[in-house]
Write a structure and sequence with these properties.
Blueprint (H helix, E strand, L loop, with lengths): L1 E5 L4 H13 L4 E5 L2 E4 L5 H13 L3 E3 L2 H18 L9 H9 L3 H12 L3 H19 L4 H7 L5 H12 L3 H6 L15
Antiparallel strand pairs: 1-3, 1-4, 2-3
Helix pairs in contact: 3-5, 3-6, 6-8
Length: 189
């Protein structure tokens, strides 16, 4: 049985979900970002227990089909930007569409309708958060970060960074207290 979980966007979330499933005596086949597959069919009591357990950890069991699809879109983007070694070489629209087996226009329309921003804006916000992370580590220079994050130039990266954050990447690097957002909170801007 497949279940979908909102706000499940990190490896730590996966560990929390695995632990909750174990506590409830449920056997999982897959625990992935935003979704789990368990061997059992849940009774309404078990579903309620799981729902409650997840809520205490800041996670939410989802029922609505559109909400599930939105979470899948978000998780594909989060995994693509934050957890892969390199971004896909194809257009993001093609990548997302192929990962979810849906027409991109359909996905884009539902996403915009439900979230109030476009998929492209969501991608940009996440890319900027990843750039902040890379700047904080100070292992790569802006040219390397620009290449890694697939910007056409350092100027393009800098312009987009400033548009989103209100400061240049250099100004961000010089901040004493660098502010990054939790991945879970990025969508709620």
């Amino acid at each position: 049985m497949k279940l979908y979980i909102k706000y499940m966007v990190s490896l730590r979330c996966k560990m929390v979900v695995k632990e909750e499933l174990k506590k409830l005596g449920l056997h999982f086949v897959i625990v992935d970002l935003g979704e789990i597959e368990i061997m059992e069919d849940l009774t309404s009591d078990e579903r309620e227990q799981l729902k409650t357990a997840l809520l205490t950890s800041g996670l939410e069991l989802m029922e609505d089909k559109k909400a599930v699809l939105i979470e899948k879109i978000k998780n594909v983007i989060i995994e693509m930007i934050h957890y892969s070694d390199e971004l896909p070489k194809v257009n993001y629209s093609e990548f997302i569409s192929s990962k979810l087996n849906y027409d991109y226009t359909y996905l884009a329309n539902i996403f915009s309708e439900m979230k109030g921003i476009t998929i492209q804006q969501f991608i940009i916000i996440h890319k900027i958060e990843k750039i902040k992370e890379l700047l904080m580590y100070q292992e790569l220079n802006l040219t390397e970060i620009s290449y890694l994050m697939q910007y056409s130039s350092v100027a393009h990266l800098s312009n987009q960074f400033k548009k989103v954050t209100g400061m240049t990447p250099s100004a961000f690097k010089q901040l004493k207290t660098k502010k990054r957002q939790q991945i879970e909170g990025i969508e709620n801007q």
